[in-house]
Amino acid sequence: MSEELHDHDRGLSFDLPTLQRRKMIRLLAGVGLVPLVGCSSDDSDSSASSSTSSAGSSSSADSSGSAECETIPGETAGPYPGDGSNGVNVLKESGVVRKDITSSFGTASGKAEGVPLTVTLTVVDAASGCDTPKEGAAVYLWHCDRDGNYSLYSEGVTEENYLRGVQETDAKGQVTFTSIFPACYTGRWPHIHFEVYGSLEDATNATSITATSQLALPKDVCDTVYATDGYDRSVQNMGQLSLETDNIFSDGYDQQLATTKGSVEKGYTATLTVPV
Length: 276
Description:
Blueprint lengths: L11 H19 L12 H8 L12 H4 L49 E10 L6 E2 L4 E5 L21 E5 L5 E7 L10 E7 L11 E8 L2 H8 L5 H7 L20 E5 L3 E9 L1
Parallel strand pairs: 1-9
Antiparallel strand pairs: 1-2, 1-5, 3-4, 3-6, 6-7, 8-9
């Protein structure tokens, strides 16, 4: 029997040359499209992100708003990072660079069920007053499933790696992940973890992190989602929490509260600007 390695077994370092070639093709293809950037189909995501009123949350802020730009508050990665700092390092696995994180990849085959959620993060340079997008950075994003479990760590899903993924920021400094709405588990406000790296290469090494933080989800949307089938445990847990008493967000959450729109039927979008 042959022991030849399949591509998905070779690790993220094997993926990088292919990803870099794709990036170059996109750049070359986009040269003739520069005058049309203002009419991009991504504009709806940008406008949704800029509608939040929190400080430093709009990449298109005016000069007075830019002067008040602050870096995203640093937060713990928690006990289930999967970045090599606490056990397994999913960042070294081929296939982790992806947009849709609802399913596991590689040899795992599980899929996370729940209300659809699309998360868009816009990474900007805080030193520029949040005016300059950070193109070519990498964002690693992860969160719990509908039952409050974390893949790779929680009982029953230790062999899964869903709801974890990495992407490279585009010319607007943006990454977008297709996921599901996370649960509210005991003791924590509904949230999403993320780490920002200088590049995809840096993302293979957890010591090269530029920023580690968490995105908070608004109460009204959480209440609506948790009233649907499958989120029963979250209803009771939410009743015992508030953003003001959460052990992470209690010191302030203006820069971390996502602008969230949508519906249970069509799914939700959550947008946040991340100054680093």
